[in-house]
Structure formats: structure tokens, C-alpha cells
């Protein structure tokens, strides 16, 4: 599943990078994805919204096995 998550993140990453941010996959364990928001995303007040309504939504749409996405 790690490869699938990386492929989806590769699709999302350009949008994050265009705003000075980025995302790093930390861990995949039993459908729980741990991500680290980097750059401008790390300190952004909208980071939670980006994670929940952006990244997590896309991951769940494209990989049904994803249960939850957690920022670390």
C-alpha cells in the first residue's frame, strides 16, 4: 500500500509546492497513513483543512483501504 500512497501524494504534491509547502510520507500501518507537512504547510493555519479535506479525501477516494490520515 505504501507505493499506492506515494503515487497519490505525487499527484497532490505539485499543488502543495506551488504554495511553498510539501508533504512527506512517514508511515503506513493497517490503513493509517502518517504524513509530515513541510515548508509553508508546516506552520499554516489551514494545514488541518489541507490534511483532512484535501490530502485525506483524495487518498481515501483513490485507495479504499485508507482508514485515517494523521499529521506527525
Short description:
This protein is of the alpha+beta class and 72 residues long. The protein has helices spanning 2-18, 40-43, 47-62; strands spanning 21-29, 32-39, 68-71.
Structure description:
By secondary structure, this protein is α+β, with helices and mostly antiparallel strands. It has a single domain, classed as GMP Synthetase, Chain A, domain 3, CATH 3.30.300. 51% of the residues lie in helices and 29% in strands. It is built from three helices and three strands. Strands 1-2-3 form a three-stranded mixed sheet. A hairpin with a 2-residue loop joins β1 and β2. α1 packs across α3. The radius of gyration is 11 Å and the shape is globular. The model has no long low-confidence stretch (mean pLDDT 94).
User: Which band does the percent of strand residues land in?
Assistant: 25-35%
Rg estimate, integer Å = 11 Å
Q: Summarize the helix and strand pattern as letters.
A: HEEHHE
Average residue-wise pLDDT: 94
Shape: globular
Total beta strand runs: 3
Q: Give the end-to-end Cα distance, rounded to a whole number of Å.
A: 19 Å
Number of domains: 1
Largest sheet: 3 strands, mixed
Low-confidence stretches: none
Structural class assignment: alpha+beta
Count of alpha/pi helices: 3
Tell me the helix content: 40-55%
Amino acid at each position: 500500500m505504501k507505493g499506492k500512497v506515494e503515487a497519490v501524494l505525487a499527484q497532490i504534491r505539485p499543488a502543495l509546492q506551488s504554495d511553498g509547502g510539501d508533504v512527506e510520507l512517514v508511515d503506513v500501518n493497517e490503513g493509517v497513513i502518517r504524513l509530515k507537512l513541510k515548508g509553508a504547510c508546516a506552520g499554516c493555519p489551514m494545514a488541518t483543512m489541507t490534511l483532512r479535506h484535501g490530502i485525506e479525501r483524495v487518498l481515501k477516494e483513490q485507495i479504499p483501504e485508507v482508514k485515517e490520515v494523521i499529521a506527525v
